[in-house]
Specification:
The complex is a heterodimer.
Chain A (H helix, E strand, L loop, with lengths): L3 E4 L2 E4 L5 E7 L5 E7 L5 E7 L6 E2 L10 E5 L2 E6 L8 E8 L7 E3 L3 E5 L1
Parallel strand pairs in A: 2-11
Antiparallel strand pairs in A: 1-3, 3-8, 4-5, 4-9, 5-6, 7-8, 9-10, 9-11
Chain B lengths: L3 E3 L4 E4 L4 E7 L6 E7 L6 E6 L4 E3 L2 E6 L4 E6 L8 E10 L3 E5 L3 E6 L1
Parallel strand pairs in B: 2-11
Antiparallel strand pairs in B: 1-3, 3-8, 4-5, 4-9, 6-7, 7-8, 9-10, 9-11
The chains are: A mainly beta, B mainly beta.
Chain lengths: ~120, ~110
Amino acid sequence: SAVISQKPSRDICQRGTSLTIQCQVDSQVTMMFWYRQQPGQSLTLIATANQGSEATYESGFVIDKFPISRPNLTFSTLTVSNMSPEDSSIYLCSVAKVLPPGEQFFGPGTRLTVL
Amino acid sequence: RKEVEQDPGPFNVPEGATVAFNCTYSNSASQSFFWYRQDCRKEPKLLMSVYSSGNEDGRFTAQLNRASQYISLLIRDSKLSDSATYLCAVILMDSSYKLIFGSGTRLLVRP
C-alpha cells in the first residue's frame, strides 16, 4: 500500500473563508480521490483528481465550491471555498494503484470545523 | 435506493463469539468488492478484498454472492480489538472508476 499524508490534520475556520488541504503520496499512483465524511456518516466521494486536467465531480459537488488540483502523480489539493458550518467534516484523500481489483488506501484525513 | 446498503448495528457480542455482516449492492455491473475497517476518528483501512470464490484471512472470511448481489463478512472468535465500524465498498465501472461505500456496521465486542 502507499503512504499518504495530508496537511493540515485539523483546522478551525471562520465562515466565508477557504481552506486548502494537501495530499502527498510516497509513490506515483494512477488515481487519486477526495472524500468527505460528515459526523456519524459514511464516506461520500467528492471527486476524482485527474492529473493534468479538470477533476471529475460527483453529483452535488461543484468545482467552484471544491476546486481540486493534481499537478503530478503524487500530489493533489482540495480547497473548500466560502466555508459554512455545514462544511464541517473530515476530508480524506485516497489513492488506487492498480485496476483490477482496485484497492484504495486512505490518508489520515483533515478534520475541519467551521464556526 | 442506496447503491450500497448495510445494517448500521450496533452488533454487541461477547468475546469469542462469531458475528456476520451482510452488505447488499444495487448495481449488477459492480466489479470489485471490499471490506474496510474504521476505528473511531481514524481513516478507513482495507481489511480484505472479496473474490468470487470467497476468501479467508485468519479469523475473517469474506464471501460474494453475485446472484443475490450481496457480500458478507464473518468474524470468528471475536476479540475486543475487533470493535470498530466495518464498511463495505463496491467499485462501479460505468463511465469511470468509482468506489462507493456503505454506511458501515458498528461492532462492539464486550469482555
